[in-house]
TrEMBL record:
<dbReference type="Pfam" id="PF03413">
    <property type="entry name" value="PepSY"/>
</dbReference>
<keyword id="KW-0732">Signal</keyword>
<feature type="signal peptide">
    <location>
        <begin position="1"/>
        <end position="23"/>
    </location>
</feature>
<dbReference type="GO" id="GO:0030414">
    <property type="term" value="F:peptidase inhibitor activity"/>
</dbReference>
<feature type="domain" description="PepSY">
    <location>
        <begin position="29"/>
        <end position="80"/>
    </location>
</feature>
<dbReference type="InterPro" id="IPR025711">
    <property type="entry name" value="PepSY"/>
</dbReference>
<protein>
    <submittedName>
        <fullName>YpeB-like protein with putative protease inhibitory function</fullName>
    </submittedName>
</protein>
<keyword id="KW-0646">Protease inhibitor</keyword>
């Protein structure tokens, strides 16, 4: 019985911790993320390896990692508000 109670408490703690971690964060609607991924692939054709929403300089961006036909990994940052590639600095 103690193992079940301990597991239940651990699960509940993890659930509330997980929800609290995302409670105040902003995100992007799925359609904006999908559009950003499409813009990234249009600019750099290839297979999607990873897509992530990040905050840079106070703005949300979508970072898309693409593997091109030659196997080269490319990181493309998209401004979802403009649906445009952010030039590398």
């Amino acid at each position: 019985m103690k193992k079940i109670t301990g597991a239940a408490i651990f699960t509940a703690t993890m659930f509330f911790s997980f929800n609290s971690a995302f409670a105040g964060n902003e995100g992007l609607p799925a359609d904006q993320v999908i559009s950003a991924i499409q813009a990234a692939v249009a600019a750099n054709p290839g297979n999607i390896h990873e897509a992530e929403v990040e905050r840079e300089q106070g703005k949300l961006i979508v970072e898309v990692k693409i593997i091109d036909a030659n196997g080269k990994k490319i990181k493309v940052k998209i401004d979802p508000a403009k649906n445009a590639v952010i030039p590398n600095k």
